[in-house]
Amino acid sequence: MVTYEVSHVTRYRYDAPVMVSHAQIHQLPGNVDGQICLRRSVVTDPPPETYREHEDYFGNPTAVLSIHEPHTELVVRSSSVVDTTGRPQSFGRGGDLPWEAVHGLVEQDVVGVEFTLDSPLVARSERLAGMARPSFPPGRSLAEAVRDLTHRIHTDFVFDPGSTDVSTTLDEVLDGRRGVCQDFAHVLVGCLRSLGLAACYVSGYLETEPPPGQPRLQGADRTHAWVGVDLGEGEWVGVDPTNDQLAGVNYVTAARGRDYSDIPPLKGVIYSDSAATQLTVEVDVVPAEV
To answer: Which CATH architecture has domain 92-261?
Structure first.
């Protein structure tokens, strides 16, 4: 049994009082991708006037809250315990099929088809298709093709946290060949969709400290992002281009969407005269004893 305790703390500091704050939170792992959420909670300071959890359009557990107490600092603490033992360790039978055959299966999947289309931050293009094609010759298995493309993105792009932000476009990432996990996930999603395959953007967490003797992975000290690849018939597998590997038992899925804009970890609206905001985020993922 592989179980992790996840802690995600977000702090906002404002230079003027905030009278009302509304927030939507995608930091609540669910029973998806083979994982089982054993418990989860969200605590805020100041406490919320209203708080509600529901499933969003994509089936992600989502919290919405409102704070009506004036404040100059907001702290949101989400915590969860997740059993990741059942997360996929391979592509399975779907990965052994020629990628063209999986393309045909996706066309028959109502859920999967939606993830073949353009989304707000990821538009299909000939540029992305051309980037993907060397990894997808006719008859190659889906697993081999996706692994090869993932490796090429990992090798050709530089992990550089200061090079991009949430406003950086996909074309700018392709031009600069550098970015962070969010950018690399968007590149892989765009490449796969441009070939007619279904791929979703996954937000979540990665084990902070690896087992002894193993290297620390990039993106482990913050929310992480990777890609879900549709294998057809409702089966998906996670692939991480930032670290060139499958999203196995040391990953925790928080939410899945078409791209980052569907599932930011925390977004909201404030009513205030504040002109400046200081944001800090702390993420920790450690083995749990249950």
So the answer is: Roll (3.10)
